[in-house]
Every structure is written in C-alpha cells, then in structure tokens.
Design brief:
The chain is α/β, with parallel strands linked by helices and about 300 residues long. Helices cover about 35% and strands about 20% of the residues. It folds into 3 domains: about 5-35; about 45-230, Spore Coat Polysaccharide Biosynthesis Protein SpsA, Chain A; about 235-290, no CATH class. It has helices spanning about 10-15, 15-35, 45-50, 65-80, 95-105, 125-145, 195, 270-290; strands at about 55-60, 85-90, 110-115, 145-150, 155, 170-180, 180-195, 235-240, 250-255, 260. It has a 6-stranded mixed β-sheet, sandwiched between helices. Helix 3 (about 45-50) packs across helix 6, helix 4 packs parallel to helix 5 (about 95-105) and helix 4 (about 65-80) packs parallel to helix 8 (about 270-290). The protein starts with 9 loop residues before the first helix and ends in a 5-residue tail after the last helix.
Length: about 300
Amino acid sequence: MPRPLSEYSLRDHLRLRPVLHALKSARYRRIDRHYYPHPAAAGDEGAVQAAIAGKRLLTTIAFNDVEATTWQARLVRHYVSADAQLIADNSPDSERADAIAEVARREGCLYLRLPPNPWTRRNPSRSHGLAMNWVWRRIIRPAAPLAFGFLDADLFPTAPDDPFAPLEAHAFYGDQRPGDDRWFLWAGYCFYRHAAVAGEPLDFGLDWFAGLDTGGANWDVLYRHIDPTSLPRRPIEPVAALPGVALREAYFEWRGSWLHEVGLAGDLSLRDSKRAAVRAILQPHLDAAGAKGSGGG
C-alpha cells in the first residue's frame, strides 16, 4: 500500500508520486489476486491442510536450492520443536523442484510445489512474498494450525530451539527489521499464533513505497499496533565467511543459534567458496542429525 498522503512532501506531490505509487500498487495487487486461485502444481493441498490442523507448523519457501533445503529439513527435524514442516516450493526449475520434492519425502516433510509465480523473473522479493501469501490464503488460514512460522531456505538451526515458545505470551514473534519510522518481522524467521491473526487480512508481501521489504505489508495490519521493544529479540551478528575477504564481500549471520547463509549478499562470484564454509560449519550437526533418524524432532 502507498504511504498516507500526509507522509509525502510537497516535492513528492509536485512530481505526482502519490498518484504513481497508488497506480503501481493497484497493478501489483491485481497481479497477485490473479495468482491466488491457481492450485498447487504438485502435492495435495487437502492432505496438507489435514496434516497441519491444530499443529505447530514451519513453512519453508524453497527456491531451486536442493542442498540448502536438504540441510535445513534435516537440522529442523533434529533441533527444532515443531509438529510439521511444509516445504512450499517456489522453484521455477522443474528438475530442481523434483529433487526438492524427493528431499521432502526423504526427510519427512510435507510438500507442495507452488503454481508458476508471475514475479519470479522480475522481482525476487515480490515472488517470495506472493509465495508466502499463497500458502497463508490457501493452506494455513483454512487449516487452522495452532501456530505457524515461515523460514528462509538458507537458515539453519545448530542447537535445540523452540521458536514457538514466545507465542505463549505474544501473538507474533520473529527477527525484527526496521524501515524508516516503521518496523516488521523478517520474512525468513517469523511466527504467529493462528487464533490471534486468523481474522486479519494478512499480507506477507513488501511495501516498497513505505521502505519495507518482504513481510512489511503487514505493518498496517499487525505491527503498527505493537511496541517492538515489547517482543523478545535474539542477537544477530554478521561474520566474515572467508579468511582474507572483506565482510561485505562474503558474510553469513548468526541469528541466535541459527546460521543464515545470506546467499544473495556480497560478491556472487564467491558463492561456491562461501557455501563450502557454511557446509564445514554445519557438517558436525548434519552428521548428528543423520544419526538421529526420521523420528526425531
């Protein structure tokens, strides 16, 4: 949604920015509305709904990365208190989508391949937000899980954790991101008590005209009514991923005990080296998770 008119400067008005922002926002919403009626390209929506009703659900928005999806599914099973994990596959590559579906089967996750996303090749942030909204509208809201959360596919737990525990005292919780005079929960780690938000018109998309990335469109619906300092927070620490390479060129983040690869940050020519560094950190945990077997959680 565009900002309120009172937040635009005289210069903005002279340049017709409120009108342009309103027209663009209407176009974005129209494209999104046309997407929601499309069913999953693979997987049984009804079966997924039945499997998550009354449960604590983690949903990962996957995108073409078979290795990261494998690591996360295995580590979530091993370390994280949750009843179910859904891999909602936003991958445009069918071969990789098939491989991710096999990962879900092998690791005991639910799986749906989302319909072709109109934003994927034009705006990755809008693509991710639309994928989250599809899952919310078609799966989570009607199924009524006890609680639900969304994860980025390159976020990996390395110690026992219960991200749903804060929901006993709060309607929602996650990693906070600022946006000018607003704030929102990062789309890669956000959790909600279903009963507290089910009646709200949630929108996990971005609100770029208000300076808010994916997940920020929930500002008007949820976040504006809450003092962010009242919510629990975990430390977030960027760390250089490669020796002798500047932090800004190759880094990952420790978000509490979760490792975030931040795959699209820095010098993309270093992605393979950075992936190898992340693999080395995770390997002992992956070994332990593999030994635990599919019944863990």
